Input
Amino acid sequence: MSKPDFQGYSIGEVIPRRERAYVVSERISHGGFGAVYACCDDWGNPLRLRVLWPISRAYENVRERWLEQVEEVRHAAHPRLIHVYEGFEHDGLFHLVTERYDHRLDSSVLEAGEGGPRWLQAVAGPVLCALDHLHRAGYTHRNLHPGNVFLTASPEPATALPAGGGIKLGGLAVTQLLGNVDVLNLLTARWLVPPEYLNPSEFGRMDQRVDIYQAGLLLLAVLQGQLPRFSFEEIVAGAPARVARELGSEALERALQPKVGDRFGSALELWRALEAGGAGTL
Output
């Protein structure tokens, strides 16, 4: 199915929803599988609105399941997860309303060249706590990256660590709705692709430990203060684990092992290893 002829919403446009309405205040992004807007509800509460469409399936074939999946994700709520308020249809497209934080880890911290062990510890706790909750609830995130980690307030200066409860993980609902890791459909940045996706016969089948690998990449980015860039050839050759070893982080080196069975079995295990001193000493 080709992308629908969606021209986007204008600032000030009203999207009706039963007895309520959402008013668009800003366009954040527009891509191959959806658009993202800042909006407010009738009370002026700041929210985020995602407009989504399927990549390779007809919308009428997924609409009922999408509504069910949104309700399932809503019940996976956790203090460290961006909250999903509702999902609904409007003008033949699926709309997802979530909690809104305007400050992302990549744009607020990494683009300023900030990071290091202090930031790693600050980010690792909330992210791995959220991940542990998702895994226990039977979910796999599959799209962990700094653009899906949100700060409740801008760190000014960027060296200022967020206060307690100031970091949340997002992106789960969109991943669940759009489906599994699919490189060709660009649902995942190339450097996030795990070795087991590229060669399952050598590295193992994809399971929840794909999140351990991607969490390792995310935390490696925080430790370095910049996004990593690995080619598919470097990924299967174990380059991310080697970089973590060179930085002195045994915990991240294990999280980034190419073979699924060589990684930590849970997010809690990774967190305990980081607490024990495997974070690196940049």
Remarks:
- The longest strand covers residues 20-31.
